[in-house]
Amino acid sequence: MQKREETRMKVKFLGGAEEVGRLAIKFQDDSTRFMVDYGVVPEKPPQYPMPYEPVDGIFITHAHLDHIGALPVCYHGDKASLYTTTMTANSMEPLLNDSIKIMDLEGYPKRFDVTDIDTMFESLTAVHYEDTVQVGKYYATPYSAGHIPGSSMWLFENSKKILVTGDLYTRDSNLLVGGKPVKADILVMESTYAGKNHEDRQQVIARLKSRIKEVVDNGGKVILPSFALGRTQELIMILADLGYRIAVDGMGNLITGIYLNTPGYLRSRGEFRRKVGRVRQVRGRRMREAALENDIIITTSGMLDGGPVLGYIQKLADDDKSAIFLTGYQVEGTNGRSLVETGTINIAGVPLRPSMQVEFFDLSAHAGHDDLISFAKAVSPEKIILCHGESREKLLDDLSEFEVILPFNGKEFTIE
Ligand SMILES: [Zn+2]
Ligand SMILES: [Zn+2]
């Protein structure tokens, strides 16, 4: 048995400490340096974390852009070993290539190119849930985080056990079983929903189904703006058997293909395959023109900032029998937020005020306040480091039995 050494671990958030987005956490002791995630704030243009500081290994929690959007930058002149699940690795590729397309299209500063993405994938080792890899003097093991397929919490072990949750969802969804606590000495936990609990998921789903029925029975169409990664597929699982004609458009179809072809991550890949067989995947302009013959259209982007969703809304804008049902968090400054708050969106500089019904259904894949507290108690750490949240302090009262650290971007601190 190898002797484990006492260490003083330095921790520095290069992003994502007091904000939701651009998560990047660097850990360093005398022997080993490693980093978890290197994402962007997905705004226009995307906001990057602080500059990459070379490490021995990079561990990715999941493929959402706020966790991977800046990752290729680390492979411009460096080749740190990269570790993710196979599902996350497969999901990353289309998203990063799409980021390059958007940089070109919008004239944003070019932060990385396809060569960096290639170098990144050459440095990648896929790790299955609960298998262990060694980086320097640390043993690292991914556990399912229940957030999207392939999402991981990482446990790092040396003299102490450090658990980094990434984005966490502890309830079962249609696609996944919820993330389960893993014992650790130090818990680094997301806190997106600090101070807020979700409406019961089954109730939200029941309400969504009944509102869709009302709209369709009344002769309207339902547009479901949806993130490509995770949400599109969850909506397919929820709606496919209801007997409506459903079209799915945008990058979600590419991700659906990846989910179907990557075994070992879904609650039931057979069930998912069967339900995907019941929806129409829109491919090409002709199919897109005919897509409004369907009752429901699930399409990107989830926050109405581009993607085929805008074309559908333009066509249905005057139809007050039709509806836009949002199911994801709408970030400040996006069209989605503006639609909810003011009823207006902006398409290529032109304001549009659709007469359609607009409603929000909370199908979040982040643990709510009470679930974060139960999770932390079950991990029963000595210290808790809260990140990935704008109101982290709202968790402090309920975590008063623990030592809790609220780090800030760029401010290094030491644990043990
Ligand atoms: Zn996420
Ligand atoms: Zn996130």
What can you see in these coordinates?
The chain has helices spanning 65-68, 86-106, 114-122, 201-217, 231-239, 252-261, 269-276, 284-290, 309-316, 335-342, 369-379, and strands at 9-15, 24-28, 33-36, 57-59, 81-84, 124-126, 133-135, 138-144, 152-157, 161-164, 186-190, 222-225, 246-249, 280-281, 296-299, 323-326, 345-347, 350-352, 357-360, 383-387, 403-405, 413-415. It has 416 residues and is an alpha/beta fold. The chain has 2 domains: 9-196 and 365-415, Ribonuclease Z/Hydroxyacylglutathione hydrolase-like (Metallo-beta-lactamase, Chain A); 201-360, Rossmann fold (3-Layer(aba) Sandwich), CATH 3.40.50. The strands form 4 sheets. It has a 7-stranded mixed β-sheet with strand order 6-5-4-3-2-1-22. A 7-stranded mixed β-sheet has the order 7-8-9-10-11-20-21, covered by helices on one side. It is globular and about 65 Å long. The model has no long low-confidence stretch (mean pLDDT 95). One zinc ion binds at residues 64, 66-67, 167, 388. One zinc ion binds at residues 62, 64, 147, 167.
